[in-house]
Amino acid sequence: MKTLLIVYHTHGVKTARMAEAVERGAQAALHEAQAADSVRVIVKRCAEADAEDLLASDALILGTPENFGYMSGMMKDFLERVFYPCEGRVEGRPYALFVGAGQDGRGAQSSVERIVTGLRLRKAQEAIICVKDLTPDIVARCETLGATFAAGLALGAL
Fold first, then answer.
1. pTM of the model
2. d(CA 146, CA 113)
3. Helix axes 14-32, 136-155, angle to 10 degrees
4. pLDDT per position as a tens digit, 73-119
5. Closest to 45 (Cα-Cα) out of 26, 62, 66, 69
């Protein structure tokens, strides 16, 4: 069985709703394809996730709010905790990112990308950045992100 790991942090509502949409899309795609027995979707907050979770996953979706033009401190903490135990062991694993931003989200995006580049994760989709209000379009893009990753794992195409 393949595992899609979704790790996110939020103190507010926007990034949590984005994470829910990613999970909803993943579960819907698996249900539609009757592939729920081939891909497991695990959703954890940054404080709950660890290196074992990342090592046991086949794909990773990260979600963070933009805090002071950077990723959240909890996302940084997660990435710091997993970096050395996972270094050299997750190369080529697909990942994607979503950011709940108050400004433009670019600082949060680049700070996450800098670290996952060191892990040699493979960007499978461009980041989804929600600036200011969460719109139905952003929710749909998050659902599509989850669906794409889940279906890609189920088909062995990701």
1. 0.96
2. 19
3. 40
4. 999 999 999 999 999 999 999 999 999 998 899 999 999 999 999 99
5. 62
